[in-house]
Write a structure and sequence with these properties.
The protein has helices at residues 22-40, 58-71, 84-93, 127-139, 169-178, 208-214, 242-251, 279-292, 306-313, 325-335, 358-372, 376-381, 400-410, 454-469, and strands spanning 6-8, 11-16, 19-20, 47-52, 75-81, 97-103, 112-119, 163-165, 194-198, 218-222, 255-259, 266-269, 297-300, 318-321, 339-342, 346-348, 387-394, 416-418, 423-427, 432-438, 444-451. By secondary structure, it is an alpha/beta fold. It has three domains: 2-167, Alpha-D-Glucose-1,6-Bisphosphate, subunit A, domain 3 (Alpha-D-Glucose-1,6-Bisphosphate, Chain A, domain 3, 3-Layer(aba) Sandwich); 172-381, Alpha-D-Glucose-1,6-Bisphosphate, subunit A, domain 3 (Alpha-D-Glucose-1,6-Bisphosphate, Chain A, domain 3, 3-Layer(aba) Sandwich); 387-469, TATA-Binding Protein (2-Layer Sandwich), CATH 3.30.310.50. Strands 1, 2, 3, 4, 5, 6, 7 and 8 form an eight-stranded mixed beta sheet that branches. A five-stranded antiparallel beta sheet has the order 17-21-20-19-18, covered by helices on one side. The longest helix has 19 residues, at 22-40. The chain is globular, with a radius of gyration of 22 Å. The two termini are 35 Å apart.
């Protein structure tokens, strides 16, 4: 059954009943509990905070993973249905918390779910720790008793943990955002904005509307009920935001906000009802943060140049990291970044916590629009425009290193190569780039290209695909 699970740096995900079920969740809880015991000593020294998104399968999986944690001695603090960034912030700020586990499949369809693991710092666990947890999980035979439960484990005792309810995490998250020095001291915007929100029946409906209302916004919404019955593909990509765009146009809203099910990603619709692309969420947040606190910016290799433009306008250095939240967070810590994130609508602010946070991004966005006293379409009109082309091809039989060498040697003149994560070729004078990298979960290679003209972006993508397929 575990062969059907998708393993990532921070956990696992899969289709419920076809690879992921309560038995798997229990074993994963045991494995994570043993990992925490090996890192932190006796489980009696702390607890694990547990949250989940609104998926209908979430409660059963959360119960099972809690049983696994308690079987190896860990107390479990149950946060209930909360956004992923809310759960991680709770871990960061709770002195008792030695780790966190969130039952969520992020933007995947409703029949999926997953288990994401946090460290005691409130960030996701490192790739190295993720591999260690996975090894422990795979070493546990299905149906076997957890090793610590019998008192014979090298990392624990026969103690059985208990499960307690932890209330108020969402309210504390809102208070922490409103307390940021980036926002007006009164936390109320001088310009009353009208915001349309689509929470796709995920956790965002629990936090984004009350947060914006505290900031003085008028909020209307669709799909705010956190019942997990997603009315559309839950990924907040431009193709999925037609209903929100129509709501903005019908109501005359200043902008629309779409949140993914676990509320770590925010996508925007402008005042004309147009979905503007998720990269702009980070670009706008970067503009606001750098206006207050100049410093380095970090994003991944596949994120749009609009982030570079925002950093350049403020005279700030931009650093690129391999794709993945953990990689971006690690690079942010290395360079002392003041803001960062990924082009999927994920904004990370070290002044709050080192993880993607859609409610935070929402607050920064309305703050910027209020300060500039301009529409979202007007603000975007001040930036250069770009077109992005994405595609995927079957992974070639020859080693990818050889393919990368061919791409680099046959590339048009003037390119700069970056091999941190696959191969990224950039032509700064032409404002064009190409990123080719293997998927971590499928036998494919992903290709993404960007240029000022759509034809140029597609030409780069087609060129790379032809070499990969030859």
């Amino acid at each position: 059954m575990t062969s059907e699970l998708i393993v990532s740096a921070s956990g696992i995900r899969g289709i419920v009943g076809r690879g992921l079920d309560a038995k798997v969740a229990y074993r994963y809880g045991v494995a994570y509990g043993e990992h925490l015991s090996a890192r932190n000593g006796t489980p009696a020294s702390g607890m694990v905070l547990l949250g989940r998104d609104s998926r209908t399968s979430g409660l059963e999986l959360a119960d099972a993973v809690a049983d696994g944690l308690m079987a190896v001695g860990w107390d479990v603090g149950d946060l209930g249905i909360v956004p992923t960034p809310t759960a991680l912030l709770a871990v960061q700020e709770d002195d008792r918390a030695r780790g966190g586990l969130i039952v969520t499949a992020s933007h995947n369809p409703a029949d999926w779910n997953g288990l994401k693991l946090g460290s005691g710092s409130g960030a996701f666990i490192t790739p190295e720790d993720g591999r260690e947890v996975q090894a422990r999980f795979e070493a546990l035979t299905e149906g076997a008793a957890p090793r610590a439960a019998g008192g014979s484990s090298a990392v624990g005792s026969a103690r059985t943990g208990r499960r307690v309810s932890v209330e108020g995490a969402i309210a504390r998250h809102i208070d922490r955002i409103l307390g940021l020095s980036l926002l007006f001291p009164t936390a109320v915007l001088p310009r009353r904005l009208h915001v349309a929100v689509d929470a796709v029946r995920g956790t965002g409906g629990l936090i984004v509307p009350p947060l914006l209302q505290r900031m003085g916004c008028e909020v209307i919404g669709i799909h705010l009920e956190p019942d997990g019955r997603f009315p559309r593909d839950p990924e907040p990509s431009a193709a999925n935001l037609a209903e929100l765009g129509e709501l903005v146009r019908e109501t005359g809203a200043d902008l629309g906000m779409a949140i993914d099910p676990d509320a770590d990603r925010l996508a925007l619709v402008d005042d004309r009802g147009r979905a503007i692309g998720e990269d702009w969420t980070l670009a706008l947040a970067t503009e606001l943060v750098l206006s207050r606190n100049p410093g380095p910016v970090v994003t991944n290799l596949s994120t749009s140049q609009c982030i570079e433009d925002a950093a350049r306008r403020a005279g700030a250095a931009l650093h690129r990291a391999p794709v993945g939240e953990a990689n971006v967070a690690g690079r942010m810590a290395e360079v002392g970044a003041v803001v960062g994130g990924e082009g999927n609508g994920g904004v990370m602010l070290p002044a709050l916590h080192p993880t993607r946070d859609a409610p935070l991004a929402a607050a920064l966005t309305v703050q910027l629009l209020s300060e500039r006293n301009a529409s979202l379409s007007d603000i975007l009109g001040r930036y250069p425009s770009y077109a992005i082309a994405k595609r995927k091809v079957r992974r070639p039989s020859e080693p990818l290193a050889a393919v990368y060498q061919r791409l680099e040697s046959e590339a048009p003149s003037g390119s700069r190569a970056d091999r941190q994560d696959g191969l990224r070729l950039a032509w700064p004078d032409r404002r064009e780039w190409l990123h080719v990298r293997p998927s971590g979960t499928e036998p494919i290679v992903r290709i993404i290209a960007e240029a000022p003209q759509e034809s140029a972006a597609h030409a780069l993508s087609d060129w790379a695909a032809e070499i990969l397929s030859s």
